Amino acid sequence: MSSEIELTGNDLAIDEFIQVVKEGKKVKIADKAYQKLKEAREYVLNNLNTDKPIYGMNRGVGENKDQVVFSEYFEKYNRNLIYAHCVAVKPEADIQEVRAALLGRLNTLLLGRTGIQPAIVEMYRDFLNYGIHPVIPQRGSVGEGDIACLSHIGLAMLGEGEVYFKGERIKAQKALDKTDLKPVNLGPKDGLAIVSSNALSAGKAALIVDKVEELVKKADLVYSLSLEGIKGNVSPLDKRVKKFRPYSGQKESIDRVTDYLEGSFIWQKGIAEHLQDPVSFRSACHIHGAVLDSLNYAKEQLKVQLNSSDDNPCVLYEDDDIVSTGNFEPLSWVLGFEMVANGLSHLSRISTSRTKHLSNPETTGLNRFLTPKMGDTIAFGTIQKPFSALDAEIRDLANPSSVDYNELAGDIEDHGTNAPYIMQKLEKIIDNIYYILGIEIMHSTQAVELRGVKEAISDKTCDLFKSFRKEVTFLDKDRPLSPDIEKAKKVIENY
Fold this sequence. Notes:
The protein is 55% helix and 6% strand. By secondary structure, it is mainly α. It folds into two domains: 4-197, Fumarase C, Chain B, domain 1 (Orthogonal Bundle); 205-494, Fumarase/aspartase (Central domain) (Fumarase C, Chain A, domain 2). The strands form four sheets. The chain has a three-stranded antiparallel β-sheet. A two-stranded parallel ribbon has the order 1-2. A two-stranded antiparallel sheet has the order 3-5. A hairpin with a 4-residue loop joins strand 8 (314-316) and strand 9. Helix 4 runs antiparallel to helix 5 and helix 9 packs across helix 11 (248-260). The two termini are 26 Å apart. 48% of the residues are buried.
């Protein structure tokens, strides 16, 4: 396996993206991409004295598109453009999110459609490879190009502002000195190329793809243990049936749960307590699969974003032209992630339903609230309150936000998507779900022990059971459960 990932601008896979962002894998710029950068930059420099108005080059940006930028002021104008766009507010992006923004922008620059000077593109590469991470406030973008946030990357490239370097928050210039990098000297079109893209939102979206894929795998495992806890039916996992409903996500989830339950007592004929289980058990794989189907759609749309130009204007040096575009519009992939949020709200809700059924004697045949002794121990009599509150938050967070925007810049910027906020909401949804799954594990492990089938569950669910029991003991008498909930969440989150 190569120690570096070569970037071309048009074939970066999301798993490679994650390797760079989370694992610190180095990147290099492909020769053919570098050639495009040079040709586009040469074209821009050869057209500095054109009479044709060019947005962001010899004219201003936003409502100032009617303002002339004279060649003798290119450096000052582009520096001021960086300064003026540094308007985002806290909270700040974490290191992975910053790396995702750097990589997202670097790859799209390599298509050669901005006309940016290659030295600045090299700075993106060097920031990633040296681990120089500009401090980026996350809030301020309306999701139509993350200009208020990405400008802080430009600030660091100027040797201004702050960065994280080797675990320390320091002045950007100090980090540049430590790595022998020189601040960039801005020229025509450079400022706009730095600030105007959807790289922060798209980078966070790539991280969310990774998080949701992991979350669904763990939700499948928790469901498997809960199915054993109620002595449920395995008929919905029958491979003879699934071929007549060929949704790819559903198949993936069913195959995974079947694997998780290999060797379990649950496969014995006549073991199930009821002819049919509640839908939250019976259709769990179908619902988890729907999350995967929505994620796959969002993922395909995001791949386009990460491997295409979202620049305005677009440098078409091959055609001797620079044209204004709407390529900065991210709605195609943003809508996909709003669909993912809705899918996760279903996943959350059926987990809470399963947990309630695990407390119900009519479903389990065990004591109410999984108490080991009726009349002596309350057990899980009150724990439904927190998971209901967490699930309510998720339903609110899953509401679409892409339609909530103002008309800005003299009303010429009259569309937005709130892409960064949608990604922030998804992160919160994921965090809440880990609490909800943790509470479900508290119930399923209790049910397995009360039922006396601990030795008969599958190897894979047994591994989860043992990991959980290392942190949270069997509830043999009442105790404060908030610490148990926190531990349960961490167990499944880190499993």
